[in-house]
């Protein structure tokens, strides 16, 4: 057992963190560094790496709150051998079927509740733009009768790995919420001291970190192990860490967090969005309960 | 212990309900939320109707021009107007609920005569200049300076979280007049005309993308000394006095509204299948119990205030629980509506708005400090 | 509206609090002060008071963590016109049917899930003593086939009022947990100051008080209003306030709370016991959901 | 990142499993929990078997007589013994996991030679005299005094929460040797023979009604200066050194046990109908995910400690979450078993025991302070 990042994985992480540090990387840059071809075999022009590396990379993407169809594009390339932007869309238990970033997509990977997969050309879809709460993740509502899909080992892989990569995004986002809350708490002063010196704020931040760390480790383990129960467990923990963390991050920011300008709200809105990507809570819990 | 109306209360409720039934259908359509002049006109027209019917300043003392109603009647007023779907107090909020009561208590006869009647009639709108970017939870750390120059104060600084600043006539302003005194001792309360030279209003976009609040920038604004309420450097006490006007009725309408929201959410859940999920059903039921109890806590606090003349310590307890229950309600709603929660719709707007509940008007952390130290008597830390 | 204790109710509360202050009152004393005859009509030798007074009295009984078959004895007298000790026993959703204090009882008021009531002579019951976790509330397990009961307005009254009076006990117990936690936090010193000066302890206590106060008011309102939904809502809040409060009280007491001697554990064990008396959580929530 | 065993680890695991499979059936029946001499005999006999098979002090350095296994192998040892249902470390706990490692690091050659081998062989049992009634979370506030008198210290005071005191041969004792120094600077570590005159052991009943712990009363107990580990007044550092021996493996067996408990609870729920309740089913599933992740966190922390030589900061994070998850597990169990939770049975005993998890070995409040200040670098308050 050597359950920590290898030197290569560390290097991948550092390279991405550096690239994404102070600005938003363009899609071309993300493609260039191989975010979407990490797992594509080397003889097909990819880097020939595995799920653990993809998860490390997506954690960084989550930390940077990157926009765009990250998960679907990676899976289309790695699992389906398709090039171009793609997004995974799950038919939800309740509410409309929503496709993010539709006009930029070439493929929509439509997953039904039973994991039947339909790979659809994005161009032909009957869809209407709808006002999204996350300003960086525009949404389209699919109209009409949904195309049927097919169950297959590939479809199951898309379903599981979409959940896992989304969990990785959330784990990264969760870590970001901790960093932002702590940075603010160290500098913002009230009552003559940094608010981070108040035990109430310290304990809020400590719980945020605990959630983020547990989620991160769970995501790594699921990537190494690949077991469905580990994947859905990691998703639950990562969603909780991201949503709860973003919520607490806003609380630490007080009134400032309530302004548009402070951009703290983007963390929460993205956490809400990613919470609804991949397997939903009910399904995750059903899988876990089924194993008991 | 009695929850039912007295004869006088029942009579008050009946007449109010009759009047609302007659009046509300006559109202024009509500304005667009982004149309500030339209909102001012709508809100003040409603206030004028209340005034004409004798319901302006229900809870204000009679000698200040109010109805002098009991706290119970005030609660009935809030309950019935909310149940009937009457307009929200809106632009009249600060005048009716904070600045006005402060002036009624602390003002000179001249100040009362000049400032109170226009509030009640809906002629003049007030906004509040208390918070500053550097003074939120720690309000008394405010730094907006006022320097005496003859019969005027010269005020420089900035304020934040000011609602209705765009359309207000007056601002109840807290300024620092003695920078060397302990922080609570060097503050003064001024009534600042919003059209004074040097006042700049900048809308402040919130995380919901709307501009319900503004920032005020004050650049050597001259405010007559005659506009000062109470003594110089006594503004902290003057401001706090108004809080004791609060008779347990703060957020009463909102509790009524939340109980309606829970029922509405159950209807949505029944319609979209979420009600079949035992977890969601039970969570909705839990919230129903919570808001029902919070309504009883409002009634309890109002009765205490009526009997003792001061509000009970229940205010912080109420605020703590109510803030969290409201946020819980909209988080639950998001689970009920599914992917619709990702759209900028009715429930999501409420959810975003709700993020302020544990922050505004005293964060939940501050409320817990108050409960622990003032009610439970736990010692301050070193 | 005058939603506060009347002078008479205040006097009743004061008298009971005084009686129960520093020692355990005997059953005879409790009977003497009228705890079980508060609602019995005056011409039948009672005090002729109402449910609000009973609730005020039971709140004090809960605060004193009184042992014995309090609820059933009051209801037997007030609703069924029966004298002697009695206890209300609900057939639980899961687990054995347990009767507290059986040898002291004259009647067992057995309530089925549908509120059908069987009034049974305690003496004839087939029951086995079982080891109870609450040392002051010995338990017997009913054996054999349970007698059927009858639905009636009286049975419904017993069901509702047992739930309400138990909620009152829990509300009083919750208030007691706050008082004990605060008293300890003010005197126990660590790191050079009373632990009650630490914000983490202060916030724990503040939340305890908030739960206790909300429960208390909900119980009072349910007593005045008498509505089933208010009663079950009050029970939920009071159970949460008592159990959660007793739990937090132990946490505030640290290691000391873990000793038998400190007796803090009795609060928690009793809160657990009363949580299972009256309508259970599932039923309470079903009633509330049904009203929505 | 790799979760599977290396070839060496797989070999270690296989041999251990074989040995456990052969050895465990030979063990006598476990003694009654109230029979202290019986427990000592049982626990030390098990330790002797481990010693004879080369598994005593798996994680101790070879030069201290241990196996010198890697942290990964130590984790495998803990996992396999727990999975196989091997006896708990029991009475050997303090010797093997705290006093022994401390002596191994800080002891003189004479002290090591005298004290370590009997621990590994199960010949001598240690207990811990750290906490005092007035020094719990604030351990360094301890007041048990030791006054030097020639070649001896004369010790007077009292200790609490001492496990196995009734049957221990030695006590690792923290005493105050300089009452005038800052509190961390005046503490000294002594190995006190439990049969020394002046030592009184009084069993301490816990809220579960059992006497797992004792109080120690020390009345002018004379301890040779030769029994002092490290310098006088350097006992705080000496004690903390041992914590850095901790290689992420604390509570590892307990996580394995909790995962088994969750499965057992699901079986109970399926049998009694509780599994039909969606809420209970989902809550059980949530806990399954939590404990699975906590096991991964153990593996992560062990790998970090192995690579860096010191345990990661993950210990407090782990402790915080694990304590709460365990308590949640037994609260959930109470809901699953219904009224059975009111009986003094298997689940209730665990629930009562579990009440200490957020208190013992550093309260959750202290853990959060550590995480906030040492990991996140938030400033100490005034």
Automatic annotation (TrEMBL), chains A, C:
Originating species: Streptacidiphilus jiangxiensis
All residue ranges annotated as the Acyl-CoA dehydrogenase/oxidase N-terminal domain in the record: 22-87
Pfam family, one: Acyl-CoA_dh_N
Key words of the record: FAD, Flavoprotein, Oxidoreductase
Coiled coil regions, renumbered to chain: none
Residues annotated as transmembrane: none
Record domain Acyl-CoA dehydrogenase/oxidase C-terminal: where: 164-271
GO molecular function: acyl-CoA dehydrogenase activity; flavin adenine dinucleotide binding
InterPro entries xref list: AcylCo_DH-like_C, AcylCo_DH/oxidase_C, AcylCoA_DH/ox_N, AcylCoA_DH/ox_N_sf, AcylCoA_DH/oxidase_NM_dom_sf
Origin: domain of life: Bacteria
Family: Belongs to the acyl-CoA dehydrogenase family.
Cofactor: FAD
Record keyword Flavoprotein present: yes
Protein known as: Acyl-CoA dehydrogenase, N-terminal domain
TrEMBL record, chains B, D:
SUPFAM superfamilies linked: Acyl-CoA dehydrogenase C-terminal domain-like, Acyl-CoA dehydrogenase NM domain-like
The Acyl-CoA dehydrogenase/oxidase N-terminal domain, residue ranges: 11-123
UniProt keyword Hydrolase, yes or no: no
Cross-referenced Pfam families: Acyl-CoA_dh_1, Acyl-CoA_dh_M, Acyl-CoA_dh_N
UniProt domain Acyl-CoA dehydrogenase/oxidase C-terminal: residue ranges: 233-376
Cofactor dependency: FAD
GO CC terms of this entry: plasma membrane
MF (Gene Ontology): flavin adenine dinucleotide binding; oxidoreductase activity, acting on the CH-CH group of donors
Keywords recorded for this protein, A-Z: FAD, Flavoprotein, Oxidoreductase
Domain Acyl-CoA oxidase/dehydrogenase middle: 127-221
Family stated for the protein in its record: Belongs to the acyl-CoA dehydrogenase family.
Protein name per UniProt: Acyl-CoA dehydrogenase
High-level lineage: Bacteria, Bacillati, Actinomycetota, Actinomycetes, Kitasatosporales
